[in-house]
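User: Thanks for the earlier help. One more: G-protein coupled receptor 183. Can you show the sequence and predicted structure together?

Assistant: Of course, both are below.
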Amino acid sequence: MNLSVDPTPAPLQLNTTPKPFSVFDGCDHMVEAILFDLAVQTFNLIIGFPANILVIIILIRNRHEPSTSDIFLGCLAFMDAYFGLMVPISFLNLFYWKSKEGWSALKFSYGVKDTSGPLFLSCICLDRFVAVVFPIAFGQLKHIKYRVGLAVFVFCLTFAYASAKTIGGLPNFEKIFTGEVLATFTWMLICNISILWALKRSRGAGKDEMHPMKKKAFKMVLSILCIIIVNYLPLVAMFPFQDHYSPHAFTCYVQPVGYAFLNISSSIQPLVYLSRLEKIPFLPDSLVRKLRCTKKPEQSPA
């Protein structure tokens, strides 16, 4: 009888049971921040979606007398409207469908929001920057083909990023978004501060009042700067320190809260644009004045 022992070790019995799919992405017991982000997205659906549609309608109505940055504003409003429209799908998938297909659709929309917002806002800042700081070059680059080309390029970057986010599995993929936010935030900050400085200096010697058009541009750039600080500063402050958080804490708490600040821009941006208009279609002048906290101009006596 052969009693020799086979030296080959027996194969280990590994547990190859696939990890069950979760729409909360591993945060089933840490959902507070996710629900906070969802509440912000609900605000986007109720307020931001109609506001973005209104912005698109206004831009279409003014297409015969467009501003040079209208194409970027229109693209931004369209993307934000699409993102707001995905909120019902988010609710349905979290609490009813719980499907991978629904989660993939949501991840794609998150990728669109992650990229399109910062990039199109950067394009608007670039347009204003060249117009104010380099007016001669701006006159030479005023043709719409340059802006269409830039918008198409941003769309390509957006869909490439969103597709990669949907597919998943790329190592350190979130750091791409962190780098993008840091780069765009820095660019927009420098850009807008330069514009404000140039407009301030353009008063000229002995002039106390700024030219009305420049004053309007100053207010617009100041509002964009406020949007940048409110919506992007939390991301810039938290995301670069990803390695200092535990993976669960970053995924379940830091990311959703940071994204919530970014997501609310889908409502803030169109509302800021509408607040700068003298007249808003489909809304009575009395309501517009109340929203802008302005009084009805008094008529001078005859």
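User: Great, one quick takeaway?

Assistant: The chain has a mean pLDDT of 80.
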